[in-house]
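Team,

Forwarding the record for the chain on the shared tracking sheet. I've put the sequence and predicted structure together so nobody has to dig through attachments.
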Amino acid sequence: MAGRRERWGGRAGGGFLAGSVVLGACLGGAGCSGEGAAVQDAVAGDPVAVLHGAADRLVAAGSAKARTAMEMASGGTRVTIRGEGVYDFRERRGSLRVLLPADAAGNREHRPITELLTPGALFMKNRGAGVPDDKWVRVETATLSDGNLVTGGATDPFAAAEVLRGTRTAAYVGRTEVAGTAVRHYRGTADLARAARDATPDNRETLAAAAEGFATAEVPFEVYLDDEGRIRKLRHRFSFVNGQREGTVAVSSTTLLYDFGAEVRVRLPAEGDIYAGRIAEGPAGKD
């Protein structure tokens, strides 16, 4: 049976802002191949060992363009937020343009949120919630209960890859394609506490925070690696207890990587451009 081709449908990439402000606004809520391919790819090695080293292959690649999609479901409501940008895996820096759905901020289109990803911090512009238009918001990612795997609306691409360092079980599914590139498809479960122990210093605290903050430290995933071992597509399924409403929120976070070696320029805001006031406890983009 021929392998299924993976397609990235809809607009370019995406993510979901799931912090207390945006969560209230937005929620108010595999392919397989035949035995021949499986035998051919048996030389790829033990799936668990392969996935433990997937993040290192991204560092070797240097950089990539990224598209993200984060879908959150709770109480019959389902919202997807999308983003697109670039990421430098060696410097651990990137920039994303994150788009909220037209109705996520209250029946009016929200301006794109610019996000700068850096070791230990997330910067957001056009954050809304009472923040002046010309100011940035800085968030220390180690203080977030999800380790910024969800809050920023798009999982940090390198943090997403480092979750795979906690892989406990994994199976090779078969050969398929992602955006026209031949890939190997794996499915498994990672443990966030183990990922935190084995992560690079930049992500240890954030992943440890996620291990404590999510409803469970076990993270099911699907990942597609090209023939150089680089992640082309990675989907995680997280769950956490909604602090504003009863019940557990299910989150599906997808990262698509392409155009490896792309130029990445990330200029951090000056201290005077960072908002020092209180952020309103209301929907994002709603002053």
